[in-house]
Amino acid sequence: MTRHTTRAVLGTGAVLLTSALVLTGCGSGFAGDDTKADGEGLTSSDDALTVLIGSSGDAETSAVQSAVDAWSAESGIKAKVQTATNLDQELSQGFAAGDPADLFYLSADQASGYAANGSLKAYGDELANKDDFYPSLVENFTVDGTFYCAPKDFSTLSLIINTQMWTDAGLTDADLPKTWDDLAAVAQKLTTADHVGLAFGAEYQRVGVFMAQAGGGLVDDGTVIADDAANVEALDYVKSHLVDGTFAYAKDVGAGWGGEALGKQSAAMVIEGNWITGALSNDYSSLQYTVAELPEGAAGKGTLQFTNCWGMAADSPNQQAALDLVEYLTSADSQLAFSKAFGPMPSIKSAAADWTSANPELEPFLAGAEYAQFPPNQAGTADVIADFNSQLESLKTSDPKTILDSVQSNLEAVVK
Amino acid sequence: MAIKAAPRRGRASGLRRGEAAAGWLFTAPVIVILGVFLLIPVLMALWVSVSDWGGRGSPLSGSVSFVGADNFAAVLTDGGLATKDFGTSLRNNAWYVLLVVPLQTALALFLAILVNRAMLRGRGFFRTAYYFPSVTSTVAITVLWMFLFTSSGAVNDVLSWFGINGPNWFNDPRGILHLALGTVGVDAGPAALTQGGTLGVSWWEWLAGPSVAMSAYILMAIFTTSGTFMLIFLAGLQNLGADVDEAAMMDGANGWQRFWRITLPQLRPTLFTVLTLGLIGCWQVFDQIYTGTRGAPSKTTLTPAYLSYQTAFQNQEWGQGAAIAFILFVIIVIFTLLQRWVLRDRPVSKRRIRAYASSSSSSSKGASS
């Protein structure tokens, strides 16, 4: 009986093992098809394209859809836009299965990881409009000296002010804060029992602007500078005003993010990016607001910029068409249409003048492009920044130097 | 071989010729389904946990190599961010288990006894009412909970009637034991606790207790699962014959004694089921975290199951993600075995025997108390 069971188990195991080998054999068969070398040459076929986007809402989805449809009509190549509910996860699944979307939104911090495992096609140098992109955006998607993918658009952080509260507090345009002291002073004036002066998210992606203004940052030319004295100064400044109640984290005023805090009138000023314009006009359309450049710190102006690129899969069978589509989507016309539909700024210099004349009141966002820093983009840094953010949540009661020291050692472990 | 094997098979199983083949044929679909969707993925995950697979193409392709225990080491011994995150997630989940398992079991048992009573009016209604949260999707309940526990939510409104200024529940990373210590003026731990530690988390942090945010999840888990376990207890209770209970009643045991000495020991198999299911469910908590806070605030709601997902899909550290999943598996097995050992059938202790032996002399005392 026992031997019989053993044999049965062994037999079943053998069957399963064989089927596993057969199944995975198929899998590697797919992957084995592409014999093309990375960096050289693009695949070309008649295959339809799949475009996977992480959309902020209907406005963005339909804008991308109509741009892609227009390109399809022009080129005669079918293309389908899919919206991801969880972009990172769906991308990972696609790469693991060997069947990714041809083109997809890709954030800078994810790009290096996918580049490292060979999932991405580095097509940056083949773009006809390569030299038109802002250099700092190109740098964002350059891994080990290779320009991987075209920045699709970008945003910077500025100060968004509730105009009504501003005038109620007796402030005028002349009072727009130029320095940290100015900012503290107006935040003080704007703080009432009902709302705080300035609110922002409890994360490096907002607090980091102060680090930039103080002359700090996280990674500079491949060197980790998280424990720099400038960063300590910046966090000390933020902490002191969190403690005196003139600054607050969005969560602490019952809002999910800065835009909500401004919309719900629980903050008079917030630090947010371009995307706030769409959210405010959708949800709080009666709110009057002013956009201003962020104040200068010890080292001058500073802000952060955020961007995504059009990633291209190394496994895509029709990269030639995908490249053509990227050029179409990053053209001035398409980007200005996107900007109109959902708010980000064009990633190419040649569209800047048109954008500014169409959005004069949002000009401070574009001005920020001149001096913006961007979050580190090396593989593994997303994790470190997530940890930094979790520590910033309790900045009010913790020691900035201790936080920054831990960020320094965590970053040093991944930035080599 | 075949001639020798045939009679042995016949003798051992009593099957007629061809029946074994038919048996295999009929079970084959399930074996194939379980194999393809359960066994093979588990084996592949095991391979991923000891390989350097980067997330592209098949993990069994030639370019993926064996890296031994590297992934496990990164999570358990390296002392870097991965270790610290894992330590934090274990800390969070340990508190969750420590509070949820006993509380949900006790509450479920209490409810089961309540609705098992013959004299309770509207038993059907109560059984449905208590069971209702269990059949509702976790996602729906999590969303409901997020609403109830926002800083201006219903829970804080109710607390404010009693003059209590409720916390910003899901955004409050402070551990409740630390908070309690803070009220008596202890804000920082002694050096012995803050200096030492394991898995990158100091002993002082291990002892922080669940954060306020995690406490909200703990309440939710108790609320949602006690209905299911009530049902299991109810089934167990209804299987118990009334005669033993009546006999005890005749012997003069009061209600409390009958519960502890008669009902509960008879419920031991049910208790084992409930505790095992509770332990497994609590160590695997994922949906709530995924739909709710995703580990925020300050990673105090990070759990190993969610961390495993995040490490693999977000950080693209597939090996480490799989390693965390297998460590979690080992933890669950250890806890289940431990619990089995604690609940094992034991010979009656000498103390207990003495108590029974002297019961005739002390029965008057028992009856009077």
What does this structure look like?
The complex is a heterodimer of chains A (416) and B (369). With 416 residues, chain A is of the alpha/beta class. In chain A, 47% of the residues lie in helices and 16% in strands. Chain A contains 17 helices and 14 strands. In chain A, the strands form three sheets. In chain A, strands 1, 2, 3, 6, 7, 10, 11, 12, 13 and 14 form a ten-stranded mixed beta sheet that branches. In chain A, strand 8 and strand 9 form a beta hairpin. In chain A, helix 2 (58-75) packs antiparallel against helix 13 and helix 8 packs across helix 9 (229-244). With 369 residues, chain B is an all-alpha fold. Chain B is 70% helix and 1% strand. Chain B is built from 19 helices and two strands. In chain B, strands 1-2 form a two-stranded antiparallel sheet. In chain B, helix 6 packs across helix 11. Chain B is globular, with a radius of gyration of 26 Å. Mean pLDDT of chain B is 83; it is low at 1-10 and 362-369. The interface between A and B is large, with 42 and 43 residues.
